[in-house]
Design goal:
Length: 129
């Protein structure tokens, strides 16, 4: 899973939390069917972000991983936890994420058992600063 960060903070809707600013422009991962060419999807996403964000000069990619568990899609759960927490914190998904993964309350409950909000939110703040 990775984050794409801008060289300056982008203003999101919710301004009460962290002033509504974050450098996080995209949260995602390379899908298994595209794993042989991960940089192609990164390149396309970077081109989109450069067009979308006025004054953006540089992007940074930060990879995050978690130890796997047998028969548990850890990367999927971490991505879901990050997207949902970002939405709660800033009132929307990151700019480069067209839509988040549709998750039921039951799926989110299971995700937050693996990656509690108390862990994910500080990580998002640290990465986005």
């Amino acid at each position: 899973m990775y984050f794409i960060l801008g060289d300056k903070a982008y203003r999101y809707d919710r301004r009460k939390i962290h002033g509504g600013f974050s450098k996080i422009l995209y949260i995602g991962m390379t899908e298994k069917n595209n794993a042989t060419q991960p940089f192609n999807s990164l390149r396309r996403k970077a081109e989109y972000l450069f067009k979308k964000v006025h004054g953006l000069k540089r992007l940074e990619v930060r990879c995050v991983s978690a130890l796997g568990r047998q028969n548990v899609p850890v990367a999927d759960n971490l991505e879901t936890a990050c997207l949902d927490s970002f939405d709660e914190m800033f009132g929307r998904y990151p700019l480069g994420n067209d839509k988040g993964k549709a998750s039921t309350d039951k799926e989110l409950e299971k995700t937050y058992r693996l990656f509690p909000r108390e862990i994910v939110r500080p990580m998002l703040r640290e990465v986005g600063d």
